[in-house]
Amino acid sequence: GKEVKAGKKGAKELFDMANLLLEHLNEGKTARSFNEFESETFMELNKELRLLSAKDVIYAANVDEDAIQNDNEYVKTLKEYAQKNNSEVMKLCSKIEEELIGLDDLEAKEMLESLGAEESGLDAIIRRSFAKLNLISYFTAGVVEVRAWTITNGWKAPKAASVIHNDFEKGFIRAEVISYDDFIECGGENGAKEAGKMRLEGKDYIVQDGDVMHFRFNV
After folding, report:
1. Strand partners, 151
2. According to the model, what pLDDT value does residue 65 have?
3. In the predicted model, what is the mean pLDDT of residues 135-146?
4. Of the candidate ranges 13-17, 127-131, 134-138, 139-143, the one whose mean pLDDT is the lowest
5. Cα gap 138→118, rounded to integer Å
6. Residue 158: CA atoms inside 13 Å, Cβ hemisphere, count?
7. Which residues of 121-132 are buried (b: 16+ CB within 10 A; e: fewer)?
8. How far apart are CA 49 and CA 23, in angstroms?
């Protein structure tokens, strides 16, 4: 019932695609399982329709401890369904996730290793969700607090600074950058500076996931 405006594609091409899509949806199927889902014409059409069933989906399967490593019949069925709908499945055990909350980092790591896992199911889902949305995080670390800022992957330093305040982008001079791995390995900012791991980056620097940054600006 929604009127679709013709953009780069011709009106007839969009109209034909819309009719094919309508037949597909009327069969109770999702837009993501549509044969032409990745075509330019569908993408043009969906700019106007913004179909919910065209959005990325991650199915989270809550399983018992035994199914963390080996899929049970329910997980196998869910994976088959997800594959038909161009989606994916991730497993987590709510009981284990609850236990992890009460543990310190070392204890949590040991527990996960005993289960043959590198990270919690919740962390894995968050990480995968960020990847699907093409998002990354960088950090600012001050005396009072450490904060994470979410940006689109590929943003340059001035644009990344704008999520803190627009003035940071307008008056951007340079950024002091320490990679996450160097920050942890050197025990923090002072250790990283002493080891020569802090870099000065300009306006063309593309922010990397986990960067620890201080912005210099003037307005």
Report:
1. 136
2. 86
3. 91
4. 139-143
5. 22
6. 11
7. bbebbeeeeeee
8. 15
